[in-house]
Amino acid sequence: MKKLISLVAVMLSVGAFAQERVVVDAKDISINASEAILVRNAQTPEIVEVKFQVPMAQQVCQAYSTRVVIVTSASQCGYEERVTGYTTRTVCTRTNPINGQCLRTETQRLPIVQRYARSCPVSESYCSSYGTVTNYESDKVRIKFKKLPSLGGTEEDTFSVKARQRTYDGENVVYDITPIQTVVPYNVVKKGIFGYDSYVIEVK
Questions:
Q1: Looking at the predicted structure, is the pLDDT value of residue 17 above 80?
Q2: CB–CB of 140/49 below 8 Å?
Q3: DSSP at 43
Q4: Which residue has the higher pLDDT, 33 or 10?
Q5: Pick from 202, 152, 148: nearest CA to 177
Q6: Alpha-carbon distance values, 174 to 55, 150, 197, 202 (Å)
Q7: pLDDT in tens, 146-171
Q8: What is the rounded CA–CA span in Å between residue 116 and residue 120?
């Protein structure tokens, strides 16, 4: 019984990762997966655009905690006044009551006071546990079958195309295109610019 269960589990696992076989018979193709086997036949246009659903893994915070940190902030901790030096000024201490003319002056020594932000302990929230969430996003690749041999009858070329996230927590998608069975050997050349994924498949 255990052997039977194991065999079923293996079969399900293999089936879950099997690539869908898609005949490319239109200029625009949509595939509800991140990879597929594309089949080129006599009805395949020279240029096609294929849309995939790509799993994109992003880091998210799963739990928050609170900790006490020391900050230097006037808005949170207030100001501290310090005397950083002195200056002098001359002031009139006696004036003529008739014409207002100064009759006696006095030199005063005044402190120069600067205000500095204080430091104090405050509570802050931070992420204490991270996890991953995966969302499926649509992404399109353009493929040009450049001057490939004409196919007739049941002849066909097959290509494995896989779309994947370039880096964890990133937004870019990259493609792996590999010929599987073809009437003649082909080269796959990446031509995409400005973030647009474009490939040319040509005869070696």
A1: no
A2: yes
A3: T
A4: 33
A5: 202
A6: 12, 29, 8, 20
A7: 999 999 889 999 999 999 999 999 88
A8: 13
Helices (H) and strands (E) counted in the chain, each on its own, are 2, 11
- The overall longest dimension of the chain from CA atoms, in Å, is 122
Give the whole-angstrom CA distance, residue 86 versus residue 84: 7
The dihedral region occupied by 78, where left means phi > 0, alpha psi between -120 and 50, and beta the remainder, is left
Residue with tokens 């200056």: 87
Answer for the pair 141, 52: CB distance below 8 angstroms, yes or no: yes
DSSP state of 31: -
Half-sphere exposure for 151 (CA within 13 Å, toward CB): 19
**pTM of structure:** 0.67
Structure token pair of residue 83: 């005397």
CA torsion angle 194 196 199 200 (round to 10): -70
Distance CA 129, CA 123 (A): 18
Of 20-29, 83-92, 128-137, 138-147, minimum mean pLDDT range? 83-92
Q: Look-up: residue for tokens 């001359």?
A: 90
For the CA atoms of 8, 14, 16, 21, the dihedral, rounded to the nearest 10 degrees, stands at: -130
What single-letter DSSP state applies at residue 184? S
Residues 91, 102: Cα–Cα separation, whole Å: 9
